[in-house]
Amino acid sequence: MQDRVLAVAMNGVTGRMGYRQHLTRSVLAIRKAGGVELPDGSRVVPEPVLVGRSADKLRRIAEEHGIERWSTDLDSVLSDPGIEVYFDAQITSAREEALRSAISAGKHIYTEKPTASTLSAALELAKLARDAGVRNGVVQDKLFLPGLLKLRRLLDSGFFGRVLSIRGEFGYWVFEGGWQEPQRPSWNYRAEDGGGIVLDMFPHWHYILEQLFAPVRAVTATTATHIARRWAEDGSPYAATAEDAAYAVFELEGGITAQINSSWCVRVDRDELVEFQVDGTEGSAVAGLRDCRIQHRVATPRAVWDPDAPVDQGGYRDQWERVPDNAEFDNGFRTQWEQFISHVCAGTRFPFDLLSGARGLQLAEAGLRSAASGNRVELEEVELP
């Protein structure tokens, strides 16, 4: 069977995430490997068309990677009938308008999150895509991390028995910029530009909890702007107007409680930058980006509180067992790109749609309301009219 070329407009690839994860490690890697194999045995090869504001940056990326087409004119790209998919990895505040234009042009939509700045706008995008009949998807990359794939394996096997609770720790120290270059762009710390760790991370926590465990029914959150002054890319100081840390309790359907701390102001004393401990009646696990450790009920030692006695050499972590890989794990962004391409070209199942993305934004809004009011906020079921 003859290979099919799928032209994909990629907006925002001059940014760190758009370039590294979506362009080079996903779309270009798929193209180099000969495309995505569909259920009928045929293959689809993605061909990126770069879109952005900086002609110099786009030209440089295109020349480096042998990409024929790039443009700073989004409208002209969207008007091209040969381009079937629009992908967005722009700054959050610019995303909604671009997605609306792409849907109006009849393009299939794949996008980073949050999909819009408000829940109502995110739901409107999902409704527009549904009414236009375009396939749509939202990046939910952490589900495809090796550590969480191992965690899913444990869940599917019944390892935990009844899941009781989840405890998550995420974050690292992001340099302020005055004396060392920060690892994140300055807009992340400006609320007026769509910044803040709640809007950035709560959508992630939503799909992890929803897809692996159960829907979130309520949230209680506290936020903080621990570092009030940071330095922008041009070296000038600015006031941080968005929160850089959030501490939340999520109540899941079925009585499961999840506690997740998110912070860009924490120095890492963990094996990985994000870890989730899941405790159940039959066993527990700690899953990170790549690794997963377990302790089953029958192998659980008797812990006794005695502050006057030293901990055995090696400590409590040595009492856990590592879950083997037992498989080869590809880049999570690439895996989801392959699934979305198959969804567009063959109609295969893809549950991570714009409505799913809207539910993640609903959790972020609820978390911010809880932090502002000091109250527990319940989440209503989100449906399209």
TrEMBL record:
GFO/IDH/MocA-like oxidoreductase domain ranges (all copies): 149-285
InterPro entries (UniProt xref): Gfo/Idh/MocA-like_OxRdtase_N, Gfo/Idh/MocA_oxidoreduct, GFO_IDH_MocA-like_dom, NAD(P)-bd_dom_sf
Keyword Cell membrane attached: no
Superkingdom, taxonomy of origin: Bacteria
Key words, A-Z: Oxidoreductase
Domain Gfo/Idh/MocA-like oxidoreductase N-terminal span(s) in chain numbering: 50-136
Family, per entry: Belongs to the Gfo/Idh/MocA family.
Identification of the protein by name: Gfo/Idh/MocA family oxidoreductase
UniProt source species: Streptomonospora halophila
